[in-house]
Amino acid sequence: MSLSTHVLDTMAGCPAAGMRVALYATAGEQATLLKRVLLNADGRNPEGLLLDQGALKQGTYRLVFDVAGYFKSRGVALPEPNFLNQVSLDFGVAQPDQHYHVPLLVSPWSYSTYRGS
Asked: For the chain, how many structural domains are there in total?
């Protein structure tokens, strides 16, 4: 059916506005870029869904979140090398007739995710 994401900055307690996110379709070690987005003020894709009805297929995908770039742009002092640079989430879509929501809660030192609604 569709795919969406939402990122919350747990360090500042706000949406991760301005974070860069890339979506890939994966097959083994091969990854094909499907879309790049810059999250809006609500920490979401300004276009809405990452993949809409019919575009989401059964298979495996990867979301790559530019965590270090986001925190650097907010003026957060990060060590070199950064503890978290990019967060890559590999996930599977078994039922493309359902909605898949992949949120990310992130700080410079930790992250968590889950399948949302």
From this structure: 1
